[in-house]
Amino acid sequence: MAKRIFYFLLTNILVLTTITIIFSLTGAGSYIDENGIDFGALLIFSAIIGFTGSFISLLMSRWMAKKMMNVQVIDPNGPMSNQERQIVEMVHRMSRAAGITKMPEVGIYHSPEVNAFATGPSKNRSLVAVSSGLLQEMDDAAIEGVIAHEVAHIANGDMVTMTLLQGVVNTFVIFLARIAAFVVSRFVREDLAPVVHFIAILVFQIVFSILGSLVVFAFSRYREFHADRGGADLAGKDKMTHALRSLQAYTHRIRDEQDSAIATFKISGKRKSSLFSTHPDLNERIRRLEAK
């Protein structure tokens, strides 16, 4: 679910910022001459850094998710509870059905939220993690549908495709951030220009990265429909639909509780724009799946 995208984007921004600082301090990748910006050199520089940052983020994605979510990876050959064994068997069964040759790592993280995610640099180095809240709130059929959906993400290679897209986005982010920083640095004293230019690069890069994430979010929403169809193929259409309806019922219940609390404090809340959502509307997902 959304965790997969969030940690990938967070890692990407941190990696890009780190690379930018290193290159700026060492003076590597110069693209400014006596005539101003060499746009050809800047574009090549931006593409190299952009795709490098994206692929480093991909390689770190599984490790980052486990550390930040405190995922407890289940040893399939060690002692397990009945529930852990059931989850591992579900993931392995779905993975084999999807044609994945090396089984994903399976983990549980303690959180009251109803959530699950799949991540990893490749089909053979992946992770499927579910929250303790999901295991408590959903029945076995819904859990199977959720796991099938996440395995479908792995089988579809969504993380690799997203990495390529993020590389393109990064290239434009770096390119535009440096042009904007160069323009800003022209408006200050010559002795301050290098410092202003350096700071402006970092600020514009973060701002443009956030704006660029809208493209990644849109891609994520598009791929969710494919993962729903893949989940239906793996677990059965009824179980996949049941999982979405269970998530919808949980979401409505939580939303009603939040609205009640907001009303108590007389605070007017607004819904988050769909542009910033990693997942499409549940009603639309259910409608498309039932029409399949």
From TrEMBL:
InterPro entries: HtpX_protease (IPR050083), Pept_M48_protease_HtpX (IPR022919), Peptidase_M48 (IPR001915). It is a multi-pass membrane protein. One of its GO terms (molecular function) is hydrolase activity. Signal peptide: none annotated. Pfam families: Peptidase_M48. It is found in: Cell membrane. Residues 82-291 form the Peptidase M48 domain. Coiled coil: none annotated. The chain crosses the membrane at residues 7-27, 39-60, 168-188, 194-219. It is an enzyme of class 3 (hydrolase). Binds 1 zinc ion per subunit. It comes from the Bacteria. Its cofactor is Zn(2+). Belongs to the peptidase M48B family. This is Protease HtpX homolog.
